[in-house]
TrEMBL record:
GO terms for molecular function: 4 iron, 4 sulfur cluster binding; metal ion binding; oxidoreductase activity. Signal peptide: none annotated. It holds the Pfam family FAD_oxidored. PANTHER family: COB--COM HETERODISULFIDE REDUCTASE IRON-SULFUR SUBUNIT A, FERREDOXIN:COB-COM HETERODISULFIDE REDUCTASE SUBUNIT A. Keywords: 4Fe-4S, Iron, Iron-sulfur, Metal-binding, Oxidoreductase. This is Dihydrolipoamide dehydrogenase. SUPFAM superfamilies: FAD/NAD(P)-binding domain. It comes from the Bacteria.
């Protein structure tokens, strides 16, 4: 490999800022990638669209979704240790808060965000000193509030990107031998010209039973009429993940409905209540937002889990047929900054409208309204955004077309294609297949919304994740740990922040090795990559046999 690959400064214009690694996306996966790269001595730039880092983990997703905690280590283990330490030091070992944090796996958004930032800026798990200076300036440059404007690809190699300050309009051009796309949307690899997928594959393409247009009864575990398995361009519904306070001293109650409020999108919940679809689950499993006081009430539209600090993690329950969010994300992925902002605002209004509806609508029985009024926006969270989360929950967008495509067969028991073991494994996935609905209620829907695959823990098993899913088929100099190369069904399992942190860590280490050996990321020495990851506590293998979530 020529020196030109290792030193992009020889090919860029004067005034371009040069780094060893440039990462687009301050998600937990991007922060893990930056942490790994900087700790290995690589000067790194981390660029984030929002004014805050941390993605969903710092924006309302209060639970680290893991069914088998022994299968994800590395930087994620450091993150939860920092969360645990916070609650221990602030409240004490015997405190309620220490119990509520679930050994560091549950956290308030501000606490989770702070833990991620501490990890990013420290030398190691036991060394909180700032990073030592790099040869060419600060070892880590963080640029929040910036969006991608363009990417320059020369001879199928990503060479530089131009970013724009979303407030001032000022542009910067960044160059590096290695780029990492850690966005939820896959924006960098799309701009660089890499091939990608958008929407759902057909059953025929990979022989996946749950692919394509699907009606699946998650309780009876059977396919329903209307299932065709046909491919389409629909995506699982986006929502916001709420952090709501139960402590009235920290409450910021809604005093008016959101702009453009309309109660009609929520009226389907009355039919759900009458039909018994807002009751409790057949199998009660901890950590899944089951709150018995909400069963058979309209408040069951929410899935509520207790967090420390008098707060709750609140998901929007996708099981009721009145769930109003599917299809509201259409055109988000292909939209420009203004279009995405408009669609995100629509989701915000729908979310606040649902909360207002549950708390104030006169048609809802008073006792149910009073139950909903126990939950409010938290006064001490998201203080620069009216106490509302900043990150839209983009559950799925583009998916890379990489050197290997992870499919349903790789992540389930009894598959005929794929393999449970990969020679280039760099992490382990384990979360059950779980896709939100893709369409609003259709005529004839009586059991489930189209596209919903609800926690298929009875078929999902731990699976090794190959490095190849992060590598584009033809673009050099780019690694993709988040919107990686999978089918829609497989993405419905891998799309968890702890797993993305593990992939991000692997991406950061791989970027270091690419520079060290002056080889493109696709050619890094795999044994050396795996050995470094093991030294950092990453879990690369799993014991064969047994399904996750089978307790």
């Amino acid at each position: 490999m020529t020196e030109q690959y290792a030193n992009p400064q020889a090919t860029v214009n004067p005034g371009v800022q040069s780094f060893d690694v440039v990462i687009l996306g301050g998600t937990p996966g991007g922060m893990a990638a930056a942490t790994a790269a900087v700790r290995l001595g690589r000067r790194t730039a981390l660029v984030e669209h929002h004014d805050h880092l941390g993605g969903m983990t710092a924006s309302g997703l209060g639970k680290s979704d893991i069914e088998n905690r022994s299968l994800i280590g590395g930087l994620f283990a450091e993150f939860i240790a920092r969360v645990r330490r916070h609650y221990h030091d602030r409240y004490g070992l015997a405190s309620v808060e220490m119990q509520q944090c679930q050994d560091g796996y549950y956290a308030e958004p501000a606490v989770a965000g702070a833990a991620l930032e501490q990890m990013l800026r420290s030398r190691g798990p036991q060394d909180d000193r700032p990073h030592a200076s790099a040869k060419e300036g600060e070892p880590l440059v963080v640029l929040t509030g910036h969006r991608l404007q363009s990417a320059l690809t020369i001879d199928a190699r990503l060479s530089q990107i131009t970013i724009v300050n979303r407030r001032s309009g000022e542009t910067r051009t960044l160059a590096a031998p290695v780029f990492i796309d850690a966005t939820y949307e896959g924006d960098l690899y799309a701009a660089a010209g890499a091939e990608f997928r958008l929407g759902r594959e057909s059953r025929e393409e990979y022989g996946e039973p749950h692919a394509g247009v699907v009606y699946f009864d998650y309780q009876q575990r059977q396919f329903l009429p209307g299932t065709t398995g046909e491919a389409d361009d629909r995506l699982p519904a986006y929502t916001y993940r709420l952090c709501l306070a139960t402590d009235v001293r920290n409450a910021a109650p809604l005093t008016r409905p959101p702009e453009n409020y309309d109660r009609r999108p929520y009226l389907g919940y009355f039919d759900d209540l009458a039909a018994g679809r807002l009751g409790g689950p057949k199998q009660f499993k901890p950590g899944r937002g089951y709150h018995p006081a909400h069963f058979n009430t309209l408040v069951r539209a929410l899935s509520v889990t207790e967090l420390p600090g008098g707060k709750t993690d609140v998901n929007i329950n996708p099981r009721p047929l009145g769930f109003p969010f599917p299809e509201e994300n259409r055109d988000y992925v292909s939209g420009d900054d203004a279009a995405r902002t408009r669609i995100a605002q629509r989701h915000r209004e729908l979310t606040l409208g649902l909360l207002w509806f549950l708390q104030q609508d006169a048609q809802i029985p008073l006792e149910q309204r009073e139950l909903a009024r126990q939950y409010h926006l938290p006064r001490d969270e998201f203080t620069d955004n009216d106490h509302f989360p900043f990150q839209l929950y983009v559950r799925e967008a583009r998916r890379l077309a990489g050197e290997y495509t992870l499919t349903e067969h790789d992540i389930t028991s009894g598959g005929q294609a794929g393999s449970s073991s990969h020679a280039d494994r760099i992490a382990v996935g384990e979360f059950p297949i779980d896709s939100f609905p893709c369409r609003k209620r259709q005529a004839g829907d009586r059991v489930v919304l189209e596209g919903y695959l609800g926690m298929l823990d009875y078929i999902t098993r731990p699976y090794e994740i190959p490095y190849r899913i992060m590598i584009p088929q033809r673009i050099e100099g780019l690694i993709v740990p988040v919107a990686a190369s999978t089918t829609h069904v497989a993405y419905s399992s891998i799309r968890m922040e702890p797993t993305w942190m593990a992939l991000g860590q692997a991406a950061g280490v791989a970027a270091h090795l690419s520079i060290l050996h002056q080889q493109p990321p696709r050619s890094v020495p795999l044994q050396e990559l795996q050995e470094l990851l093991r030294q950092q506590g990453q879990v690369l293998e799993h014991a064969p046999g047994g399904n996750v979530g089978s307790d």
